[in-house]
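Hey L., structure's done. Input below.
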Amino acid sequence: MRGLLLLSLLLLGQEIRAQEKSQDSTHVNKSKETFNYKSLLIPTILVGYGVVSLENHTLQNLNNSTNEELREHIDKRFTLDDVTQYMPFLSVYALNNLGLKGKHQFTDRTLILGTAYLIMGATVNILKKTTYEMRPDGSSSNSFPSGHTATAFMGAEFLYQEYKNTSTWYGITGYAIATGTGFFRMYNDRHWLNDIAAGAGIGILSTKIAYWLHPHIKTLLFKNEKKLTGTALPYFNGKDYGLSVALRF
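Output:
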């Protein structure tokens, strides 16, 4: 758990440093927003680690030893990860509803989140259906990568991007929740360590790509943004959590 938390803080620290460099360059050219490829390094490494672990015996042994260590301390399983995976990105809408405005208005942030979710969901599902990695509990062969973890880290990066100009503590909180989600996926015997690493990397990359694509998608879909309004509210139907979005054209 300490290792996962330190990794998340490292990810956030690397992102903050990249952002500071980007802000310095913005003073030179404010009219053009550039994509910082250096910010992709750590999440790409995480995904690469997860993929290599599928065939590397040394890393597979690390998976097994981590799983065995957790099993020795498991007294009772918790389903917190089913809820915490959504908390980072839902927090963006909750904070806005409380009057604390983020970087983007409703339409833009919802388009960004939707794009990130599509990229993340498609990537996770394709890998699950092609890698056939057995879950630690033997329940199914779709362990790689962790969808819960990918969702959580996608949301953590979304929360950070929207509120990084307000306070980095929002991003730290989001990444801490995402780390906890990944930990509980292993604690509940649902995923291996490499599943968690790959899921985290995919989630972060999906959000970064979504922000990069946003101006192009917005221009393509909504040439007259004044005609588009909407609302978003979290929901719970007794079993499932999610976000209810209503757009008006």
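Strands lie at 229-236, 241-248. Residues 23-32 have pLDDT under 50 and may be disordered.

-- N.
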